[in-house]
Task: structure prediction
Amino acid sequence: MIESRESEVHAFNLIAREKAIEAAAEIDKAVASGRDPGPLAGVPVALKDNLCTRGLATTCSSLILEGWEPPYDATVVERLAAAGAIVVGKTNLDEFAMGSSTEHSAFGPTHNPHDLTRVPGGSSGGSAAAVAAGFAPIALGSDTGGSIRQPASLCGVVGVKPTYGLVSRYGLIAFASSFDQIGPFANDVADAALTLEVIGGHDPLDSTSIPSQVPDLAKNLDRGVEGLRVGLVRELLEGIDDDVVSRVHEVADLFSSAGAEVDFVSVPAVEYGLTAYYLIAPAEASSNLARYDGVRYGMRAEGADVKHMNSSTRRSGFGDEVIARVMLGTFALSAGYYDAYYGKAQKVRTLTRRDFDAAYANHDVLLSPTSPSVAFKFGERSDPMTMYRCDTCTVPSNLVGDPAMSIPFGTGAYDMPVGVQVMAPQLGESLMFQTASFIESQAPAGSTP
Ligand code: GLN
Result:
């Protein structure tokens, strides 16, 4: 499958053919000797190329890390291996996970398998495309402001951002540490649930890891939604394309018919979500990316002295979007502007938490579009603001650390996939998956990639 379409889709930065064959042989041996090969035995998995894999190049789709081989595996990679999964490759992304289209990769864009003239979304566009194209039934991505859910929506697959702290970030190359979460892409809700059960749960190597296990998600999938209180977030239906909004209303009607209580709910602070996110995330990125200094990792450009070597490495190693974010973040943190920008953005974060708490006081889950539009054409969103608006519906969950996921629900304009987002309170994954499973069971046929 990979060989037949990868040249036109470009989901991968690296295909781990030999290693995959070796790992598969190990699974065969385990089965032959009667050992339990694990819940994901022999299942091919694609990993976003910002997850550390021992001895396998990990680039973040950046020239600055080209060819760098991590000396260790991320916790999620270890857990997948222990469950019998086979890593088939590292997937393309917007450089350092900054973007919504995978156009900002130093190694060229990924194409949407449903229409090669359109983007797959981002930043985990390669992982979403790999699952949509049938290259792997499961992939992992990272979601800082929507980078799992938005590409899942644009590629017509399931994408999950778990509660912050439920999945270990150990070995995930940091973008904005207070937002970053790893999560699965899959063809269906049940596969996503199984994958989250495998990769989640406490890890002492991540100081923000929650000291609990992932609940048994599979058990509730068929419970239905009777009596469930579902809120349609009013602010997240504004400024969204009609074809997407009408799909969300269809889902709301299905909930009502199935005996759920559905109403509109207001979460006013989400209006400032994008602004707050685009101050705090770059601020954290400017600090996290300081480590790429030409000494410790990857490439080095020459310079007359250490200072010049450092700046010419960063200038030639980072792409324009990354440089813009580092500058923006440094500015937001600088003396004199800290209170006005970074401090204020943190206050918005607190307000957003309060508004969500109020909404969850009388709702079990919340519903919204995942992306304001279906997949767009390459080059169509060239100014940063239009691109940043792709994250309108996804960023709020990252600001507060709540879980959220995107479920494919039919098609919209140009016969491209539409995704519906379910949001739940912290550690509300059980109910979130139960709701998602209902949506999946009612979904009209999607487009075929
Ligand atoms: N599109 C958002 C950004 O560019 C989100 C990225 C992400 O979740 N990694 O920052």
